[in-house]
Amino acid sequence: MPHGVLFRGGKEKLIRELLMKDDSIEAIISLPPGLFYGTGIPACVLVVNKRKPDALRNKVLFINADREFAEGKNQNKLRPEDIEKIDHVFTHKLTIDKYSRLVEVTEIVSQHDYNLNIRRYVDNTPAPEPEDVQGHLLGGVPQAEVRALDGAFAKFGMRWPSLFQDLSGRDGYLAFREEIGTKASIKAAIEADPALVAALTRHHEVLEAWWNVARDDFAKLREGKKMPEVRKELLGTLKSSLVPLGVLDEFQSAGVFVNWWQQIRYDLKTIVSTGWHHTLIPDDMLVAAFFQSEASAIEALEAKIGECQSELTEAVEAAQEMVAYEPEEDEKVTATVVKKALKAMIDDLEEAKGESARKEWAALVAHDKTLAKLEKAIKEGKSSLSVLTEELELKVLLKRTGPDDLKAESQALLNQLEARLAKLVVFDKEGKKELAALERDQAALRVRLSKVDTLFASIGGQLTDAQAKTLILQKLHERAAQDLERTLNASKRALVAAVESLWDKYAVSRQTLESNRAKTLEALDGFLKGLGYLQ
To answer: Does residue 264 register a pLDDT over 80?
Structure first.
């Protein structure tokens, strides 16, 4: 419902009174703005239950979740962790500061006259930003504001003296340490802190230990274990593993899991229905597991081609200067264009007898050969790259499906081509082109058929169920690690932002600003005197 039903008078107030007297409202949940298509206004969920449990008699749970969402360009959305938090708080009827509260009906009636405006009961407005006038005027970071971040530092095992030092002659005020000379260096100093690095490492070690047990639950999916049961067990064990480390709270830890589960749930359904199928394995994982040497050769060749292309670009620019070539408007200067201009100048100077002209001719010829050499290297490199890439793709396909399907498909295509060739009658130029194209395709298919068995033997046979299971579990584990890293980075960014806020407020005092202003004006006066504008 729109929020207006919670506080408007008239018939809507009468409806609220009737619902409250019947004790039918179990919970009211405030949602973020912009969730629904076509409107930006926030909405609320009214949970109406005629059979409320005895523990909730004459009570209403208020959940204010309107600040936790992902912003979108046209529409906002609730993230999996946001939904999980709402569900968990509602299910367990939890009271969380600035998020949820269980309110007695007597308070709603006597103090607020049936007004159910959520902010009256759960106000999640951020606390005002403190401002220290003395710090702004004279400089120095108030120690009280730094100590307010003790909890944020302690989560990572850090202490504020790693970033701040006492300010001489000013009790109650601190200064940034000398090595932190700019705002940008705050982030680098925090990320390099040994305590923070150790805390992040502990989280990944705990995740690794959790995964060593959790992966057995996935293996049991094929044995009849239900997905909801697996989800519940894994969520509980992951939260109990991460929360004691102190960086992530219960809901952030749950967010790691639910985001991960959201990504892998279709993979799990495939495992349940068809087993450890090769389609769940990305090509890059197969390549890394079985064809790393081939991939490395392709990368090296791509790097070599890239170097040659860079050299060719430089050589084209140099040639353009040598021949003083002026391109037309919007004309792109390419190797072909420059080589044509080079050849014209070489031809002009070829019969020249003067020593200077002969030297210039020789330099032009040498540069022309350099361009030709680079173009040849790039062409040959691309040709080799095409062969290597095609061969690697064929190996990956063979590793997935074996040779039989590929050979049958290739033979069927070859038979179709040969049938077309048998019926083709060439009368004109277009017919010759079609004939040449069909013959090229026929030759390529014959080469592929001849290579299939040899390549299949060289890759050690088709992917086994055990190998597929190992790689799929590895993919699931890597995604869990990525979600944990993302959540830890968000907590780390929050600490960095808090310290950077102190820099923005107090790093430059009014006195410093006035001093810099005076120096700038003095320098400006010096320039004006030098120009004769001031006596």
So the answer is: yes
